[in-house]
Every structure is written in structure tokens, then in C-alpha cells.
Amino acid sequence: MLYDTSHDLPRIDVAFARFVALGHRPSQAARLAGFSATVAHRVGWRLQQRPEIAARVAAFRDSAEAVRRMPAEVVQGALEARIDAAMAAQDYAAAVRLQRIYTDLFLRGGLNPAAPPRNRKDKNDDGRR
């Protein structure tokens, strides 16, 4: 499953594997997972060499493929429910991670906006395409 709750790896390593599975480069995935920018390149390279991390990345990729086949509304609803649950439990770190995943999926075109646009025309759109 894309949101693994097992505790055999530290959370930051699981987050790294998740971001790699979503298509980020290892150094970028390390930064997104919470490593400092100064060590992200080294840590990303080192983590991707570990067999347990590689296995977790493969599992997340398989899970992500299953999620890609699901209707976008189902994925969006599940993510929003998990974000709301994390906020209610005051687990803000988990809420931020889930929001990053939500944003990443949205920016890649996998999800619809959470709220409909206010106006028919975007204020920043000058009408030219």
C-alpha cells in the first residue's frame, strides 16, 4: 500500500522510498523526506543502495500503479480523509507529508483541484494560449 504503516524502517527512510517511488531523484527525495539539503545527495545515494529501501521502493511503485488505475475521485477522497485524520490527531508531520503527496499527484495531473475555481476566468489568465 502507498501509505505503509509498518515500523521495520525509520519513518524518514520510508518517506524517502515513497518519494523515489513517486518519481523524484534520490537527492530530491531525501530533501522531501526531511534530510538537510547539505547531505541530501550523499544520503539519497546511500539509501538507494540499501536492499530494504530498494524493496520498499518496488513495493510502493507496485502500489502506486494500483492507485493509478483507481478513479481519481477515490484517491482524492482517501488522501483528503487521511489529511483530515492526521490534523484531528494533531500529527502535523504526517499531514504535511500527505499534503506533499497530494500536491505532487495534483501537479502531475492525477487529481482535480480540492476546491472549484471561484470565477469562471482566472485572474492571472490574460486569455492568450
Structure overview:
The chain is mainly alpha-helical and 129 residues long. It folds into 2 domains: 6-69, Orthogonal Bundle (Arc Repressor Mutant, subunit A); 70-112. The chain is built from 6 helices and no strands. The chain has helices at residues 11-21, 26-33, 40-49, 51-69, 72-88, 92-107. Helix 2 (26-33) crosses helix 3 and helix 5 runs antiparallel to helix 6. The longest helix is centred in the middle third of the chain and has 19 residues, at 51-69. The protein is globular and about 35 Å long. Residues 1-5 have low confidence and may be disordered.
List keywords for this structure.
globular; single chain; 0% strand; mainly alpha; Arc Repressor Mutant, subunit A
For this structure, the CATH topology of the largest domain is Arc Repressor Mutant, subunit A
| Rg (CA only) | 17 Å
Identify the quaternary structure here: single chain
Poorly predicted tracts of residues:
1-5
How much strand content do the residues show? under 5%
Name the average pLDDT. 81
Distance between the termini: 40 Å
Q: What is the 3D form?
A: globular
CATH class of the largest domain: Mainly Alpha
The helix-strand sequence is HHHHHH
Largest sheet: none
Number of strands: 0
Helix content: 55-70%
By CATH, the architecture of the largest domain is named Orthogonal Bundle
Indicate how many domains the architecture comprises.
2
Task: Kindly summarize this structure in a few lines.
By secondary structure, this protein is mostly helical. It is 63% helix and 0% strand.
